[in-house]
Write a structure and sequence with these properties.
Elements: H1 2-32, H2 39-57, H3 61-84, H4 92-114, E1 130-132, E2 135-137, H5 139-161, H6 163-173, H7 175-180, H8 185-207, H9 217-232, H10 237-257, H11 263-277
Antiparallel strand pairs: 1-2
Helix pairs in contact: 1-5, 1-8, 1-9, 1-10, 2-3, 2-4, 2-8, 2-9, 3-8, 5-6, 5-8, 6-8, 9-10, 9-11, 10-11
Length: about 290
């Protein structure tokens, strides 16, 4: 039982960052109908920016996190303006090929700049874990979980309570009608892609100090983000949030009770089973954004 509680605690902490990945991707797909193959590379970008600010420049840890997220938002806006805006109205095959190419270019750029050697990021938090009865957790992981929860809540608030969020929901429901009502679709798309990219960069910046950073770190992150979105239901923010925690929980169970080598396989196996039973995902519904 103690071991199960420890795995559940680890899954809760990891699930927060998985949820950030899933929410960012589902926002982009739900509003823009774009399959974003650069999502994992923006995650890697956030981790590398965290490494640069903390390890090379020596900036404050929290300031470095904020800067990494801001740069991720700016990178997302740049991708949307330079690539996706020019492809508005193009068929999905063309858009997918461009995004795949952009993802490959970003990954190779990271390897060129940072080399293929894995890099670690120092944490300012105490190395001794916080012990709570039979379970323990590092202070760094607690910080990661707290920030992830704050970002998830902030995203919900932005979607539900702000004028931008209302424009996003209107664009999701009916793009043409929203444009007739005065919604600037170009601006909504840029803001959506920037927000989704910022959440991916945040996940990378948060997990960089927990694990290590290397150029292909975005590959598995991208696969997990797509799996979370499909599991929760395409376009569903609550589904992406819960899907992230489900995937993390299955990974922890697989690593703890089967083998650490099957950690990723257990999560994807669960997704296969769920999709066989419910092909639309767990939380798909007609109005899926918000």
């Amino acid at each position: 039982m103690d071991q199960l509680l420890q795995h559940a605690l680890n899954a809760m902490i990891l699930g927060g960052t998985y949820a950030l990945l899933g929410i960012g991707l589902t926002l982009i797909f739900g509003i823009m109908r774009v399959v974003n193959f650069t999502h994992g590379e923006v995650y890697a970008f956030g981790a590398y920016m965290m490494y640069m600010f903390v390890m090379l420049i020596g900036a404050n840890f929290i300031v470095s996190l904020v800067l990494a997220v801001v740069l991720g938002v700016m990178l997302g806006a740049l991708i949307e303006i330079v690539l996706l805006r020019r492809l508005r109205g193009a068929d999905i095959d063309t858009t997918m090929l461009v995004m795949i190419g952009a993802g490959i270019a970003m990954q190779n750029s990271e390897q060129l700049v940072w080399s293929g050697v894995a890099k670690s990021i120092n944490s300012p938090f105490p190395s001794a874990p916080l012990v709570m009865g039979a379970v323990s957790v590092s202070w760094t992981r607690l910080f990661v979980f707290a920030v992830a929860v704050v970002l998830i809540a902030a995203t919900y608030a932005l979607i539900q309570k702000t004028r931008l969020g209302k424009s996003m929901r209107a664009t999701f429901q009916d793009r043409e009608a929203a444009a007739l009502m005065g919604v600037r679709i170009d601006r909504v798309h840029t803001a959506t892609f920037a927000l989704g990219s910022g959440l991916a960069a945040a996940a990378g910046a948060l997990l960089g100090p927990v694990f290590v950073v290397y150029p292909t770190i975005g590959d598995l992150a991208s696969l997990k983000a797509f799996a979370i979105v499909i599991l929760g239901g395409l376009g569903s923010i609550p589904g992406a949030t819960i899907g992230g925690f489900i995937l993390a929980f299955m990974e922890e169970l697989g690593a703890g009770y089967v083998s650490s080598g099957y950690r990723d396989a257990m999560g994807f196996l669960l997704i296969i089973v769920i999709l066989l039973v419910k092909p639309t995902g767990l939380f798909a519904r007609k109005e899926r954004i918000g």
